[in-house]
Specification:
By secondary structure, this protein is mainly beta. It is built from eleven helices and 46 strands. The chain is globular.
Length: 776
């Protein structure tokens, strides 16, 4: 037998042994704990200031970036946010910052948006280490003046995850019209079962599939095909036994290969294993296990059934209810008010008041919204695990059953393949604490030749005037750390080879650091029915626009003097060495003639826009080996062709910097001198490369709450959908807070929501109704 054949056999044997690796229950627990230590999951939630919008609205939000234990992620973190349209493409994108797990910001909706359902998607780079289900997604309604008709897509869920032959299986179908009947059809078109859709749009079946049969659910003319039943698997059924125990029923076919085999049952919540058991299936095909609830926290937990090879046989999410750990008391000075009156309220958290981390408050014009909103506790404890938007209506006696059905359909899965892998878990993405870009530098755009390692490269940010000199890494890799900035900026860069010559065709292909594959929001169309919020918001916008004509400052009379865009750069250099006022001379037809005749220490060789430009540099600097750095109306470039294409008649001044004491501290940036150009219009600049645009942080702005001066301006009406919003309420040393705000001109029922989270990761919330009455 040859050496190659022997190696092949040994490799196949190794892979076979790996595929048949057996674990003990302790192995599974230890690997899970190791995985969680190395790659802990995080949760992200945005609390929006209201639930419905029109095009042009601003969406204000609080952001909670937390561990699975709901403790704020330490330090300053940068997060991405996208507004995603019905086609699944990003419409708006920006980054924003949170500190120690909390922050607030805003999203401006384009006025060009069509009415429909949109996704707000937000994530940190760390969250990209996991399945896309862990990325935060929130559907928002953007309306005109008509209500939206939402095109619900039916979904099917199987308790346990698989359809198992010869044992009872619970099937849940949701997203259907209330009151309709759905039918389960089997082989030969026979009716197996039927169910009426309840008021939550859910229908359920329990039936025993036959081996080799096909099943589907009919809904009108639609057919929802069920997966093919499998023999070697498990059906799983959960039930609570009082408040203290959870009963797990496991069913498998008497013909299953798992009869008389050892299995593992694992219960996880908040990144920890709270229960684990190893048991033998026996010969009956039915196993019943009771799990104590005493150490299961409030919120979503997960049950997994594994074989000894680590293969998941059945799993599902479930909700565990417990008594609130903290309660928030909120006291108002009264419950009935008049328009523009001041509201005063106090709040206090029972227990250890010093543990409060943050509190936010909003007051909504409740009549404009058809439904209430979920509490922060429900959002963080329950709904971060559910893909679809879900309203928890605790006034409905069946709300837990409805939630359980939704968890069967939309619940998550543990990534056991990664957890039990022999490879040490390593994250592919890190937490983002600073702005950065990375990419590959190529000698030119038309070849794949990479810039050699150790090549010197300079980066410059046009808006922030930040300069950074570095070296190219192996395989042409470049990294750029960007200082904090707001809004967009433009990167300019160039590089020199080891001979001191500039690389003419240099091109950096930047890595894509954002998620660009988004799920599509639910489709919707406008109905013929009027939407209360849409009508109100559009009319309010028209009123505010009309009255702002009389209150806005005439900005045309302000700031008529515009600074030269080159001034800031010139000040950093302590002035130019040569200053030529072009308008003091006769007009020259070309830049070549102007340079030759009136600009000292600058040389052009070549014809018209061709050739090269050199700045004469005194000792101790070396002779210029390349064209100088041009600053044209504040924009830095090395584009000599563009420089020479300028018209002398458009130029106000030409300034030259060639002093060694000014240039030498700039390194490669100032090595060949600097020429500054100011034009009459101040708008001429070299072409913009879209690839070099950098999106900075989105700066948070204050919500437009009414102040005393606006309240006392009686000739200006104020109509608002959100009366007041404050994402960071001050708290005194005793843990008590007090808030005062003015009401608008709106009358009717207003809802005040107060929410927050403790340093120990316990969310809390409270709400109160007030009535605004027109006293006239």
């Amino acid at each position: 037998m040859g050496i190659r054949s022997t190696i092949t056999i040994l490799l196949n044997l190794f892979l076979l042994l790996q595929a048949n690796a057996q674990f003990s229950i302790n192995d599974v627990v230890n690997k899970y704990n190791t995985y969680q230590r190395n790659i802990p999951k995080t949760k992200l939630h945005l609390s929006l200031h209201q639930s419905k919008f029109i095009p042009g609205d601003t969406v204000y939000f609080s952001s909670y970036f937390l561990s699975e234990d709901l403790i704020g992620v330490e330090g300053r973190q940068l997060l991405d946010l996208h507004l995603v349209g019905s086609d699944g493409n990003s419409i708006v994108h920006f980054k924003y910052a949170v500190k120690d797990g909390f922050g607030f910001n805003q999203l401006s909706l384009p006025k060009s948006l069509e009415p429909g359902i949109y996704h707000i998607v937000s994530y940190s780079s760390w969250m990209r280490n996991f399945d896309s289900d862990f990325i935060y997604k929130k559907e928002i309604e953007v309306v005109g003046e008509k209500k939206l008709l939402v095109n619900q897509i039916p979904k099917i869920g199987i308790e346990g995850g698989q359809l198992i032959t010869d044992v009872p299986n619970k099937i849940v179908v949701n997203g259907l019209g209330v009151g309709k009947t759905v039918e389960l059809i089997g082989t030969s078109q026979q009716l197996v079962a039927s169910a009426e859709i309840n008021r939550s749009g859910v229908g359920t079946f329990v039936f025993t599939p036959a081996n080799g049969a096909e099943y589907y659910i009919t809904h009108g003319t639609d057919k929802l095909l069920l997966p093919e039943p499998v023999l070697d698997g498990y059906s799983l059924n959960l039930n609570s036994i009082g408040k203290d125990e959870l009963q797990v029923r496991l069913y498998t076919s008497p013909s299953s290969k798992y009869i008389n085999k050892d299995l593992f049952l694992i219960l996880t919540a908040r990144g920890r294993i709270l229960y684990s058991a190893s048991f033998n299936q026996g010969s009956s095909g039915i196993t019943i296990l009771n799990i104590p609830k005493s150490n299961i926290p409030e919120g979503i937990a997960h049950i997994s059934l594994l074989d000894t090879g680590g293969k998941p046989l059945a799993e599902r999410d479930f909700y565990n209810r417990s008594e609130p750990a903290v309660e928030l008391s909120m006291v108002l000075d009264k419950s009935a008010f008049e328009p523009r009156e001041k509201v005063k309220l106090q709040f206090r958290l029972d227990g250890d008041n010093s543990s409060i981390k943050n509190v936010s408050i909003e007051a909504l014009n409740q009549a404009l919204y058809e439904q209430s909103v979920n509490s922060l506790s429900d959002e963080l404890n329950i709904l971060t695990s559910i893909e679809d938007d879900f309203l928890i209506n605790r006034s409905d006696s069946n709300w837990q059953e409805t939630l359980d059905y939704d968890l069967i359909v939309n619940g998550a899965k543990e990534n056991w393949d990664d957890i039990l892998s022999d490879q040490s878990p390593k994250p592919a993405f890190a937490f983002t604490t600073v702005m950065r870009k990375s990419g590959i530098a190529y000698v030119n755009d038309s070849t794949n030749e990479r810039v050699p390692a150790d090549t010197k490269m300079v980066f410059y940010m046009q808006k922030s005037m930040w300069r950074y000199e570095t070296s190219v890494l192996d395989n042409g890799e470049v990294w750029l750390m960007i200082p904090e900035q707001y809004g967009q900026d433009e990167i300019f860069y160039f590089a020199e080879n080891y001979r001191g010559r500039r690389i003419e065709g240099l091109k950096i292909k930047w890595n894509t650091e954002e998620v660009d594959d988004f799920s599509q929001p639910t489709l919707a169309s406008e109905s013929k029915m009027h939407d209360k919020y849409g009508e109100f918001a559009n009319k309010s916008a028209a009123v505010n626009s009309a009255f702002s004509f009389f209150t806005n400052v005439d900005t045309a009379l302000v700031g008529q003097v515009k600074n030269n865009a080159n001034d800031a750069f010139e000040q950093r250099l302590y002035g130019a060495d040569i200053n030529v006022k072009v308008q003091d001379y006769q007009l020259f037809p070309t830049m070549d003639e102007m340079i030759r005749e009136i600009v000292p220490s600058v040389i052009h060789r070549g014809k018209e826009e061709l050739g090269y430009v050199r700045v004469t540099l005194p000792q101790p600097m070396d002779l210029a080996t390349d064209d100088p750095l041009y600053i044209i109306n504040g924009i830095v470039t090395k584009d000599t062709k563009y420089f020479l294409s300028l018209k002398p008649s458009d130029i106000v001044t030409v300034k030259v910097v060639n002093s060694p004491r000014k240039l030498m501290p700039l390194g490669l940036f100032g090595k060949n001198g600097i020429i500054m150009i100011e034009t009459k219009n101040g708008v001429e600049r070299p072409p913009v490369s879209v690839d070099n645009i950098v999106d900075g942080l989105n700066k948070s702005v204050a919500f437009n709450n009414l102040d005393s001066s606006e309240v006392n301006t009686l000739n200006h009406p104020h109509f608002k959908s959100t009366i007041y919003w404050n994402p960071a309420v001050s708290i005194d040393d005793s843990g008590t807070g007090e808030v005062e705000f003015y009401l608008s001109d709106d009358v009717g029922e207003m809802q005040i929501y107060l929410e927050g989270i403790t340093k120990e990761g316990i969310p809390f919330s409270a709400q109160r109704k007030i009535h605004v009455l027109n006293g006239k």
